[in-house]
From TrEMBL:
It comes from Caerostris extrusa. This is Endophilin-A. GO terms for biological process: synaptic vesicle uncoating. Gene3D superfamilies: Arfaptin homology (AH) domain/BAR domain. Residues 1-224 form the BAR domain.
Length: 308
């Protein structure tokens, strides 16, 4: 850095510290410039949106729902009225997704990109001139203060600082003035945004109206079809073997004797004599005994003779 530039930076720092700490009064800007500064600050806050065209790296919810409807509608088959209705509604959802992609592209191109240009180009130029104006004001006030203290300063230095300060003031004021007077273009961008939203909703309404009419027609067609009633069927009508076909018949009491796997009758053990009220199973008469008592002793102690 040249000596003159270094000296200028020292003078700016000296003036800045004198104003902030020493209470020195700097040059006041006009009221018009101050009002433009306030509007510029508000515009900076409102221009934080970022534009720029980007590839669609995401899917719309309407498109995802439409894909699912079409897929499961095809799984049900063309003979299913509900399947055809699912396909019809799914195609409408996919069309709405495409319309929404078009809306986003239109908004980015006609609204967000001009706003992004305003922030990165026009506002940046204004900020540059404002920063330069602040430095030249400090240099001008420093030289003016030194001149008031009868410091050794030439008239050319004072005039040069004054001219640069005036130039920067006019450039910064012109930039903010042009920025704030650009109402026509900014309103046109807002109108473009509203028009894009209007077209989007109109197209979605037309798609949904057509889908609704078609779904109502399919509902009427399904309602006009002859109704079939379900008739309960027996298992033998369905050629399904019943449960008792696989189970062997049980041997009832008094039926023919059971047979062994070889086919020969199974021998039964011989019957023992049963005392039933003095009668044996073979028909012979004997003394009366109860089944719970021993057959060899009566209640009176009399032992009956054994019958062979």
């Amino acid at each position: 850095m040249a000596f003159a530039g270094l000296k200028k930076q020292i003078n700016k720092a000296n003036q800045y510290m004198s104003e902030k700490i020493g209470g020195a009064e700097g040059t006041k800007f006009t009221e018009e410039y101050t009002e433009m500064e306030d509007f510029r600050a508000k515009l900076m806050v409102s221009s934080k949106l970022r534009g720029g065209a980007r590839a669609h790296a995401y899917t719309q919810p309407e498109g995802t729902l439409g894909e699912c409807m079409v897929k499961f509608g095809k799984d049900l088959g063309e003979e299913s009225p509900f399947g055809l209705s699912l396909i019809e509604c799914g195609e409408a959802m996919k069309q709405m997704a495409e319309v929404k992609y078009a809306l986003e592209d239109n908004v980015k191109q006609n609204f967000l990109e001009p706003l992004h240009h305003l922030q990165t180009k026009d506002m940046k130029d204004v900020m540059h001139h404002r920063k330069k104006l602040q430095g030249r004001r400090l240099d001008y006030d420093c030289k003016k203060r030194r001149q008031a203290k009868r410091a050794h300063l030439s008239e050319d230095e004072i005039r040069l600082a004054e001219d640069k300060f005036e130039e920067s003031f006019n450039l910064a004021s012109m930039g903010m003035f042009n920025l704030l007077e650009n109402d026509v273009e900014q309103i046109s961008q807002l109108a473009s945004l509203a028009e894009s939203l209007y077209d989007y909703h109109n197209q979605c309404a037309a798609i949904l109206q057509s889908a609704t009419e078609r779904l109502n027609e399919q509902r009427n067609e399904a309602a006009s079809r002859p109704k079939e009633t379900y008739q309960p069927k027996k298992l033998h009508e369905l050629n399904i073997p019943s449960l008792h076909d696989d189970i062997s018949p049980q041997v009832e009491y008094g039926a023919s004797p059971a047979r062994s796997p070889a086919g020969t009758p199974v021998e039964t053990p011989p019957h023992k004599s049963l005392y039933l009220g003095g009668l044996t199973a073979g028909g012979g008469q004997t003394s009366a005994t109860s089944p719970g008592r021993s057959p060899n002793r009566s209640p009176n102690g009399f032992v009956p003779a054994k019958i062979d």
